[in-house]
Fold:
Amino acid sequence: MQFLSRPRWFSFLKKFQIMTIPKPRQKLDYRNKLILAPMVRVGTLPMRLLALEMGADIVYTEELIDLKLIKSIRRHNPALGTVDFVDPSDGTVVFRTCALETSRLVLQMGTSDATRALAVGKLLQQDISGLDINMGCPKEFSIKGGMGAALLADPDKAALILRTLCSNLDIPVTCKIRILPDLDDTISLVQKLADTGIAAIGIHARTRDERPQHPPHPDVLRAVAKAVSIPIIANGGSRNVQKYEDILKFQLECGADSVMVARAAQINVSIFRRDGLLPMDELIERYLRLCVDYDNAPHNAKYCVQNMLKELQETPRGKRFLQCQTLQQICEIWHLGDYCRRKQKELRKLGNSGRAEVEPPEAQAKRQKLEEAATAITDEYEGVICRSMPFLRSTYASDNHLPKTVLYVYAGKMGKSPPAYETQQCDKLFRAICSYDDQRYSSTFWEKNKKQAEQGAALVALLHIGQLQEEPLRENGSLIN
Structure:
């Protein structure tokens, strides 16, 4: 038997080890970092990616509730290159992430139960690098559920949640709190939480009852930072943050290891950019491209752009923007209409399953019943004519131009019986059939209420009888296929 010489054998073994032993996952370090703070409806994938591009070191998701995450289904989305956590009842994407952010992503969770929190942590830990527990939100919804700032009044429960997570997860755990009215109480609370094994603690430099118009208390954070060894992440300084250097100034005032930015980043996420702020329109264009690339929900994109526009919403362009309902319509305003159409067509070919293709549980059986009902009334019907046509209210100047109204008026002019509608509901979604002139029409797009579903069905009828043209409908997003 021929043996390998030591150098060759050593080289072979080293190569074999590289091929077979995965590289240990690097733990997220919370020291000396600029962080995008958790913000409801802002901290979704496109804004997180843009924040990283602008210079943020770590990005937090918006607060996601444990009960919502537990019932979600984890799915790979190869068309987008993402991992999606989807609500099976209505197809809503609860949480979407991608490999570009995984190593710098912290998910903030709202919870009031250690067991439930751990279940979510185990479900998510392969897709994130840190888990943060919200213990500072003063909103009524959180407090009534025993979450957010409610945990400040129950330090034992707060510590139990954190200790349970730290002992059983492979990723670092943190929490975000607000200061208490008394400095000594704040220090005692932070020390108690630090003893659970958390990797860092984010502290909003205001009390539960204080709001953005109240000045922060950096002196309290300085005292807390001296009392514990874990990193302190300062938050609450956006009131005085106008440029990149202001972030560093706030960090220094608080004596903190890191700083997270909320409202200042919500208005202009290029606040993280060392070379200065980008012009608003350039920032919006970059953001919208990411929204298109990752099929972001139109209402979410609209909310984020509104925060960037601020008072410019009152300009003619701003008012036109406020009427938008689809990503396509928003993109047209910033000269990205062609890009949006091209990209959405490309993603559909790749198999991206957006809201247009959503069918709630048991909807397939319901759809079959709809089609059976359409053909069972009389043998003269050939079935239901279907197109994927969402109803977009913003594309109609007045109620007189709505599809149902137009079809009703047209029927009268032609001496036909008025159209009739029947609606089916599946979980939270609706779909209607419009009966007109011995034919039935339906949009395959499941709407969120009965009236919109009927308008969608009327839209299909108007297209089929030649009262509407396909190209304008495709351009404004009313015809998907």
Notes: The radius of gyration is 27 Å. Residues 1-22, 373-381 have pLDDT under 50 and may be disordered. The first helix runs from residue 6 to 20. The first strand starts at residue 34 and ends at 36.
